[in-house]
Amino acid sequence: MAETAVSRFTPNSSPTISATNEAAEANMPLLRFLTCGSVDDGKSTLIGRMLYDCQLVHDDTLEALENESRSYGTTGREIDLALLVDGLQAEREQGITIDVAYRYFATSKRKFIVADTPGHEQYTRNMVTGASSADLAIILVDARKGVITQTRRHSCIAHLLGIKHIVLAINKMDLAGFDQTRFAEIESNYRTFAAELGLTNITAIPISALDGDNISSLSVRTPWYRGPALLQHLESVVVDSSIASAPLRMPVQWVCRPDLDFRGYAGTIQAGSVSVGDRITVLPAGRSTQVASIVTYDGDLERATVGDAVVLTLADEIDVSRGDVICAADVRAEVADQFAADIVWMSERPLMRGRPYILRCGQQSTVCQISELKHKINVETLEHTAGREMELNAIGLCNLSLSKPIVFDTYADNREAGGFILIDRLTNETVGAGMIRFALRRAHNIHWQAVDIDKHQRAAMKGQKACCIWFTGLSGSGKSTVANLLEKRLHALGRHTYILDGDNVRHGLNRDLGFTESDRVENIRRVAEVARLMVDAGLLTLVSFISPFRAERRLARERFEDSEFFELFVDTPLEICETRDPKGLYRKARAGEIANFTGISSPYEAPENPELRLQGGTLAPEALVDEIIRTLEMKGIIDKH
Amino acid sequence: MRNTGHLRDLESEAIHIFREVAGQFERPVMMYSIGKDSSVLLHLALKSFYPAKPPFPLLHVDTGWKFREMIAFRDNVAHRYGLELIVHMNQEGIEQGIGPISHGSALHTDVMKTQGLRRALEKYRFDAAIGGARRDEEKSRAKERIFSHRTADHRWDPKQQRPELWHLYNGRLAPGENMRVFPLSNWTERDVWDYIAQEEIPIVPLYLAAPRPIVERDGALIMVDDNRLPLKPGEIPQQRMVRFRTLGCYPLTGAIVSEATTVEEIIAELEASRTSERQGRVIDRDQSGSMEKKKEEGYF
Fold first, then answer.
1. Residues A3-237, CATH architecture
2. How far is B96 from chain A (nearest CA, A)?
3. What does the annotation say about its assembly with partners (chain B) (predicted)?
4. Are B5 and A100 within 8 A, CB to CB?
5. Contact, A81 vs A45, CB < 8 A?
6. Which of A289, A517, A518, A626 is the least buried, fewest Cβ under 10 Å from its Cβ?
7. Which chain A residue has the Cα nearest residue B139?
8. A246-328: CATH number
9. What's this model's pTM, rounded to 2 decimal places?
10. CA nearest neighbour of A436 among A475, A410, A458
11. Residues A263-282: pLDDT tens digits?
């Protein structure tokens, strides 16, 4: 039976492109655009109107819509076009759009993808998501209200995400009497503000989304308006094509090895073009060769351009793997492990300086830290403010430090090669987005100073193996007591030791830090660094810190080699710690006199796989030390005796 | 000559997504449901990895109630391209004798499709399942991500979706979790047909109009594909010129009256059409938001 299907598609009976598909015939590329505005501005109504005017609303959908309009509609008089686009049921009931929704429609000239994103401040992350792939933004303004703070926020985000084409859709002109003076006033206000941002390509159009004025055709109610109707403008706008003439970039997604004779590199041309015989360089390694062939399912090509998904084979056998970037040999991308970037924070848990995140840029993935938060940006006033952490929807300029160099271009030059996401290492959520501004020079110029004596030699001189013994547990769990006893025991065994104690370190090195979550992260980062230096110096280093967060203990662990780090969890139940209360802190915390107190008003994340779990509530300190000594003997840190 | 219009843009995007799946996951699989979207998906998979074969098997979650022509087409396709095809039927469902007629569409779909899919993913420990769903199919799908995360118990949480920026897809998973991946997210029904025409992609003949034995029930035209469909008193199948816009379990799939016997005629018909694609699906009708509910429970 399948043969029947095949035979129906012989070339005779099937033209390559349907004669009726005018959008395809016109050969216009897709236009991806974003609509910005709030429910009140009529954003969903505008999209509904465009779909309706393009006759994309089917009879059964319309019928369902009439039913829904009676239950959820806000227009009162007729079918509510906004309901066409408000997707999830929860949103429909609340009358707001929460997430990014994508809509598709086509006119006879062009096909469109609309990212419909919510307007309120708490949904900045959604607008940023929609804007990342858009070439144009429609910014909706209510003609009665004019340019408001929200308009500024939308424009700022559109600009930040590299959108060059703005349509200022001045809506509800029906409620402003189609007044030309009002329109001109709003347009002029907007242009002044947009110029400050650097947005220049602006088309202002007076519309009524509800009634359809100047949407698909020019309205008789605005005879003074000389520009195009909205859809005419969208059909004809030519979006920036500079990426097509930029130097070649093709990130390698997958290595294609069907047999021993073929080795090709699969990817999409991200910038520029490539021809057979072109000189290319593979970054970050930096080896150069020529393109031998451009392979596709539809036959080999002589040349491929931006947007083509191809497989390249190379003249010389060089080592190329996923994440490498094939570049024009004469204009290479940058390679650096430190750079400055604008970051948009997308998680409920704030971004913290010093906390490790996974950075993904193209097909490259590495661990990174925010080394400095230079300033946060107020997207309404464009003012810069200082801060230690970034909360949900905050935007800030940061310096990042990566655990290995990545290949990139600046975001201004190439959105795909300069945009990255940050991923939480524990939850795997995408928690932030970033746009690279520039590589930090120090990344190029500061190299590790190699020294001739290493830590093993230093430790050997002391007749020992160096390690870090990290005690974690609640306040009052007995960490300091046990650590103190352990050091005495090690000292008696002739070992060279040092104790870093939480309270003591806060009197000096960390006296500038408080007890907020971000300060606690920085506290641990510094202590981990000091402990690492001490292990490097050959010492048995005991660290006694509450260290409540898994992510930071993991960060500490990663500063050491596997055999050098011992996480000891002093597992004493909260009730017992609270009864002991050696410093009277629990009492104060319960009375509300101490904020952010671990176990009471700030969480303690217990270790999942510590090297040793000590029953601090049931065993005496001496017995716990015996247990630690046995573990250290077993691990070969100290000799059995 | 290569097309430079929007079909090329959509094709490149889909190929990019396929390659990301191959690059990011250990054990991917492609859901193959035999419909037109699956045909397009398979064609794109072949393009994505050429000259190699797609580095994953095809999986068909069979309910036992598919049209006979679909099954024949499926077996032929797997054979022709030399691809591994896994056919999975929910054994529990078979043992309990679950069927669309005896148990109703909701229970049948849940047990044989939703549960069947879960069992299959668990059995083979697939960490990514590529599917042909499109955002234009239904309102709740409009917000689904291209890489759509599923918890270890296969639930989709519309409030906890990972933001997708640029063409960066976060495929990181905790043990037991899996990802559903939708390369055709940005395609419309029209794009699918235009692409089938342009690329001359084979499809199940049921999409094309032909005289078929039909009974009319609650306004839906149901094809009597075999003798398991009990006829009501006085009900006599009529030969009618019909075709199907979507294909599923035959007792649950309504045909439309049509004269379109070629893909070009289908496109012309689509142009003039005033009803949306999923209208023929009995399962979507019960209430507004019903697809959203099914998806949260793990329906594809």
1. 3-Layer(aba) Sandwich (3.40)
2. 31
3. Heterodimer composed of CysD, the smaller subunit, and CysN.
4. no
5. yes
6. A626
7. A87
8. 2.40.30.10
9. 0.75
10. A410
11. 999 999 999 999 999 999 99
